[in-house]
Design brief:
Length: about 290
Amino acid sequence: MRPGSSLALAVLALGAALGAPPALAADPAKAVILATTTSTQDSGLLDVLIPAFEKRTGYFVKTISVGSGQALAMGRKGEADVLLVHSPADEEKLMQDGFGVNRQLVMHNDFVIVGPPEDPAGIRAARTAREAFARIAAARALFLSRGDSSGTHAKEKGLWKAAAIDPEAQSWYQQTGLGMGDTLNVAAEKGGYTLADRGTFLARNKASPLRLAILLQGEAKLLNVYHVIEVNPARWPRVNAAGARAFAEFVVSAAAQELIGRFGVDRVGSPLFFPDAGKRPDSLGL
């Protein structure tokens, strides 16, 4: 594996201990380390995509599910081969700094603001996320932030900034430091508001109903776009560049895009993600 990457070495050791497929133990070149967001894991999408990729290519994927910020940091350190993330501004910085190559549009869903059905801050009446956040602050209603440098956290901070509100020192603003699924659980338990990606909310709510309702949705600013990025082998020669390329090509392939477009229909009655490979970014308002 790559020099200085104790995480990558630990990943292979763990795989061997857990009885990883023979291809991984016999041929490290067939192991691909994917750093991705908790939303792709918590929604269940990876449970569909990764087995299909492994069957089609013979590669074995080790998934590290963290916030987009952490996934991108792993790419900068050469601790992953390929990234599937949803934090556009941070992704662009990664590319500008030369740590990523071949960034491709994969899919989108959107963010929603959820909270207790009785809606003590009255955000159902809000027309924009900016207004909704202002109402939450004015009511001093509990808000649960992931606080984990994820793409969702970055979006949330941008919405507070747009509302000209700094919630950091406020008693009603709490950071969980957890992924999306766990943050939804905390919000439901405490009767608070949070920003969530629609896919994870619908999947979690279907699996185990949460005492949360979607209270604001549909604004263009709440679009949630995912890209796949290969870690630059010129910066980190020991990354599995061939495996990263194979994974990237798979997730933008017609077969994977069809899986993405169907995912969730049988569970919640509608797709949790919408395939976008090959589309122009400006067609999504990017």
